[in-house]
Amino acid sequence: MEVHTVTTGAESFTCNVFLVPGERTTLVDTGTYDGVIDEIRDRVDALDAVVLTHQHGDHVDRLSAVSGRFGPEIYAFADHPLRTRAIADGDEIQIGDESFEVVHTPGHADDHVSFVSETTLFAGDVVVHDDGAFDDGSFGRTDMAGQSRETLIESIERLLDRLPETVEHMYSGHGGEFHGDVRTVVERALDRAERREPKYPDK
């Protein structure tokens, strides 16, 4: 599956935004990068869908602009004025040319979902390969209002239960993409989360 990170040119803080061309050309999150529309237009002529991992500002800031320019279906777990399709745990959706299962993974955000196919994980912020706190297996922060480390741990466990052994590509909301043994990275993130240590002890 072809995946383009369309926020690599951003100079200010944003989440990673992934463009997946195919039978159902899809954008995973929209980020805060002003240039995201031009980046999409440089690669595809049309955008069929936007799927949101969650609705923190760094993931949805450009949603209105993307919606206005391309008119895609917008899939989200929680209500949003621009949402056209509600998704729930266990649903199947198409991203590019592959079918993905929706896995509800709260803790970092109540409405957080991840998307899992036979080959690929779009993890949002629940699990990250490298993010400045940990390398080769980190997890979303849970030290702010409305967040829960215990719930996040349960979510990572749920994700592992539903992660096929064949998954070898992981695209997260922050940090770098990962190709290889995704299950081991997720297990390492779970182990670190279970230690209950602050992710950012100096903050």
TrEMBL record:
Gene3D superfamilies per record: Ribonuclease Z/Hydroxyacylglutathione hydrolase-like (3.60.15.10)
Keyword tags: Hydrolase, Metal-binding, Zinc
GO MF term (any one): hydrolase activity
Source superkingdom: Archaea
Pfam families (alphabetical): Lactamase_B
Cofactor: Zn(2+)
Record keyword Hydrolase present: yes
Name of the protein this chain belongs to: Zn-dependent hydrolase, glyoxylase
Source organism of this protein record: Halovivax ruber (strain DSM 18193 / JCM 13892 / XH-70)
